[in-house]
Amino acid sequence: MDAVRARYPEHFTRWSRQRFVMIGIAAALFLLLLFGMGQLGFFGGTLLTGVGRLFEIAGLMLPPDPGSWAHARAYGVALIETVAIALLGTLAAAVLALPVGFLAARNVTAQRLVRFLARRSLDTIRSVDILIWALIWINVVGLGPFAGALAIMTADIGSFGKLFSEAIEAADRKPVEGIASAGGSHLMGIRFGILPEVFPVLASQVLYYFESNTRSATIIGIVGAGGIGLHLAEAIRTLELQQTSFIILMILVTVAAIDVVSSQLRFAMIGRRAGIGK
Amino acid sequence: MSTTIVRLPEAQLRPLMAAYDASVRSRRANALLFVACVAVAMVLASISAEVSPGKLLENIHRFPSYIIRLFYLENGQPVWTDIGEWFWGLQRWLRLLAETLLMAYVGTLLGALAAAGLAFLAAANVAPGRWTRVIVRRFCELCRTVPELVFALLFVIAFGLGPMAGVLAVVIHTLGALGKLFAEVVENIDMKPVEGISSTGAPWHVAMRFGALPQVLSNFTSYTLLRFEINVRGAAVMGFVGAGGIGQDLIEAIRKFYYSDVSAILVLILITVAVIDSLTSILRHRLIGLEGRN
Questions:
Q1: Domains held by chain A: number
Q2: Are residues B120 and B179 in the same domain?
Q3: Smallest Cα–Cα separation from B247: which of A153, A144, A129?
Q4: Please, is A110 exposed, middle or buried when counting C-beta atoms within 10 Å of its C-beta (0-12, 13-18, 19+)?
Q5: Which terminus has fewer CB within 10 Å in chain A: N or C?
Q6: Do A50 and B160 make contact, defined as CB atoms within 8 angstroms?
Q7: Mutate to test the interface with A, among B71, B154, B291 (most CBs of A within 10 A)
Q8: Mutating which of A139, A152, A230 best tests the B interface, going by the most B Cβ atoms within 10 A?
Q9: What is the per-residue pLDDT for B189?
Q10: Are residues B76 and B140 in the same domain?
């Protein structure tokens, strides 16, 4: 035992330097947490009274009830509109982002400046929240679902451009070289060498985003860009809590249904190799 | 060196070519069917979403002009001619930005701590009971499917206007998203250390602490840092529904057409997000480096 202790002293010291550093970092994080909670008013009485009121609200939300048949129908139509917004926005973004993705990919675009510009603009687009894009598009095409679809499209061009360019960079070079050696042009190399290889990956990413966009589409109505969000915000603000929970339930069911369908489609497309492109 | 390509006799070639043509044709037909389905879905969706290309074409010029207008002051000069006037509210905005960052920090950390606890209850390989696992999983699903802003709207009623509602919304959403990811991490651990500790008669929580936690901690940290990036963006729009942070001033500026304020706040948010992103990515790479060295 003593021999082992002599050979590996670092495993037997209780307070190694690394441990001190770790504890120091944890303490600093914890102090910042306490400071933040203090700044944001967690230690006043509001937290406790708020939690009490939250339970009251949760009680009032049950059972979910649309109130009247007309309400339920309006919610159904709005929900279809929400899914439509998500579908349109996602597909339009995918189509528009494809060329940008190729421009931003290292193995396709040799021009460093073009690549740099493509990447920076994608980063900028991605940093602006979808709600802000919605507000900007409302200024252009007016209130309504069209602005929502455009907002989702704009925000997704940023994400898709980045994801697509990464997928393209990960593609095998050999088919492209084969086409080049057979005398094919650069464009043909992209069309027949890269596109068939990356298409399933891209399609599965698009499906994955369709699902998450359905969730985003439920909230852009809060700023007036169509979909169920408008009804939801209205129901919450007017304290129609049973209607609120009914709408939330409808959203959950829809998102779950889309989740099932899109994961089936994804599996069909990429085989049983789950997890690609997530 | 030249080689002659051997060609099959015509009689043998013909069925092969026919089969090739048939397979190409069926793939083309499949692709066409797929495109047709997508097109029909698009048309139906366009009707539902009130898409009108005419309106878009008619008004598309407003998109660039709106964005350009953002960079002009009220007196008609471009913003960079008078930086002081552009960022006239800098002090207030910086304070709100700090509040936004604190909201994201507190929300991420509290959410991640809760998720780390729940993950051990939700992971199939270590969960103490089948029912707790199912319940915890469903709970996480609920927390991440309902959008953050909806929670924020509800919390604003319960806790009043202000950052607390926003923080709690971030906490709930982080808990849902990280709970799932963390549980997946725990499901991928090597079970031998856990079995070893359990075989000495240690209770469940001790086995988790010394058998599972050391294996998952670096992954947990890395996911939490990623989540922090997302939450900074999320916290920046919490103010849209009155739940604190810079969003409040932003939406007010947009709604009241204070153009240069909009661009000033957006620039501040973009810079903050970029700085946070690069800091966390440095941290994450360090973390991965540490893991590789051990």
A1: 2
A2: yes
A3: A129
A4: exposed
A5: N
A6: yes
A7: B154
A8: A139
A9: 86
A10: no
Query: Contacts of residue B150 in chain A, CB cutoff 8 Å?
Result: 218-219, 232, 236, 248
Of A61, A81, A107, the domain-final residue: A61
Q: Which member of A46, A83, A146 has the closest CB to residue B159?
A: A46
Please check whether residues A7 and A35 belong to one and the same domain: yes
Q: Any idea what DSSP says for residue B81? A: G
Q: Kindly state whether residues B176 and B64 are assigned to the same domain.
A: no
Query: Hey, is the C-beta of B109 within 8 angstroms of any chain A C-beta?
Result: yes
**B3: in domain:** no
Question: Residue A161 belongs to a domain with what CATH number?
Answer: 1.10.3720.10
CA A225 from centre of chain: 18
- Assigned token pair, B127: 């969960």
Rounded to 10°, the helix B90-122/B163-187 angle is 40
Residue A15 and residue A82 in one domain = no
The total number of structural domains in chain B stands at 3
Residues A36 and A174 in one domain: no
Cα of first residue to Cα of last residue in chain A, in angstroms, is 49
Residues 74-93 of A with CB under 8 A from B: 80-81, 83-85, 87-88, 91
Whether the Cβ atoms of residue B107 and residue B167 lie closer than 8 Å to each other:
yes
User: Dihedral through CA A23, CA A25, CA A30, CA A31, nearest 10?
Assistant: 110
C-alpha–C-alpha distance, residues A57 and B158, integer Å: 8
B1 domain-assigned: no
pLDDT one digit per residue (tens) for chain A, 278 residues: 777 777 777 777 767 777 788 888 889 888 888 888 888 877 877 777 878 888 888 887 788 777 778 888 888 888 888 988 898 899 999 989 888 888 888 777 777 788 888 888 888 888 888 888 888 888 888 888 888 889 999 999 988 888 888 888 888 788 888 888 888 888 888 888 888 888 888 888 888 888 888 888 888 888 888 888 888 888 888 888 888 888 888 888 888 888 888 878 877 776 544 444 33
ipTM of the complex: 0.78
**Contact (CB<8Å) A88/B42:** yes
**Same structural domain for residues B136 and B259?**
yes
Give the Cα separation of A228 and A226 in Å (integer): 7
Q: How far is A137 from chain B (nearest CA, A)?
A: 7
Q: Most A CBs within 10 Å: which of B61, B101, B143, B153, as the mutation test of the A interface?
A: B153
Same domain, residue pair A74 and A18: no
Q: Do the domain assignments include residue A204? A: yes
- Give the Cβ contact number of residue B193 at 10 Å: 15
Domain that holds residue A42: 2-61
CA distance B67 to B71: 7
Residue A278 domain-assigned? Answer: no
CB contact under 8 Å between A39 and B102, yes or no, is yes
Q: Which of A32, A61, A90 is the last residue of a domain?
A: A61
Which two three-digit tokens encode residue A231? 């009804």
Residues B165 and B276 in one domain: yes
Q: Taken in order A134, A140, A144, A150, is the CA torsion positive or negative?
A: negative
- Segment 115-134 of chain A within 8 Å of chain B by CB: 123-124, 127-129, 131-132
